[in-house]
């Protein structure tokens, strides 16, 4: 009996250390994953896009990153299934993010960007090693455990969370890029945000609203309250497009990003999105 209990304890410890189980109990693990793309942007001149991606790992919340690897190129395909397997070491004590940059391989000119996205590694683990993040331009990725046995793709919701409710939220941003610099003199923009939502990663878009403009700020906090009727089963996504309000020309794009609303609710209605170009956007309960 003592030997059996010892064996059970050893197996439990191994599961925690090496990631044989999924969920919030996993503190460290060796993760192997594969990636697919769906509904990618078509940048091909003759035929469709020839996509590949480069994946990098950040262990400081997106401030810096190191290359993990590059996928093969798949010719003439907007819904690629890359066969490459990538491996990283997960450590919950670190603020780890994966950065995916998808490109169109061009032989006669510079490769075009098809989309980018940051993925929180702890969230990916807690979803059972499967995630479907939206790219900033068009389409989405499917990231899943290369060894099979993927989980639900959902973060656990707090006990007592209703299946549907009206969410009221406010936005703030930090470290936005500037577009109105004069030579070497940096000037702060006048940012505002356009918000839409979809049902699922590739659903049709529905307008949520627009914030007011905050003058001369790289770190704006908007006072507007936006609302969304959330239903858990719809897998709703919010897309945020940030612009610099210009009176004399077209408004410049400062960044855009997506958030899975189920994740926002699971995290207590506060969530920070790392924008693919520069800066962060925080969504919090109003």
UniProtKB/TrEMBL annotation:
Keywords, in A-Z order: Signal
Signal peptide boundaries: 1-23
Keyword Signal: yes
The keyword Lipid metabolism is assigned to this record: no
C2 domain boundaries: 12-134, 146-274
Cross-referenced SMART domains: C2 (SM00239)
Protein name: C2 domain-containing protein
